[in-house]
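Hey team,

Filing this mostly as a record. A colleague (T.K.) asked me to run one chain through the structure pipeline before their review meeting, and I want the input and output archived in the tracker in case anyone asks later how it was produced. No errors, nothing strange. Just documentation.

Input sequence:
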Amino acid sequence: MTHLLARSLRAALVVAFALTLGVQLMMLFIANTQPVQGDIAVSRDGTAVTNDSFVDEVIQDRGGEVALCAIPALILLQAVMVCIWRLTTLAQNGKAFTPASLPYLTTTIRALAGMTLLLAILAVRLSSDHTLPLGFTLYPYGAVLASATGALVMLLLRALLDQAINRDDEATRMRSELDQVI
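Output structure:
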């Protein structure tokens, strides 16, 4: 792995990690804030607006549930980012196809599976309320699909890594047998 590729991936991971921290803080704020109905605010152009919007009602009714599922899901996503960082380091050192990378792949698979479960619970809870528009309920289902796909891809990569390690061990064993014969 080239240094430019590793640095680019790490830069993207740092930005993504910072964004997830920001979203977690926003979720904590949403979970602990109760919007006041009929409150008057001033918009950027100087006109007075009220906070009687549909989004405020959703936050007031479902904000705690969303935060309860989204914050742990984001923590699991951060665990995946840390594992990818470690796998990048292993790849940069030429040790990506060794047993040292198996724990990071296993942790990634488990974190993605947990994230899938949390997002599925959130999607089912949001879709059980028929007053929400379709867009509010489709986003969590899309996130469930994305995280489940990521977990399956990582499971496939782990199986391929196991196979490569086994073949390498077999080649080493055969090489030592050949040295003994010669």
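Quick notes for T.K.: The chain is about 80% helix and 5% strand. Strands lie at 40-42, 48-50.
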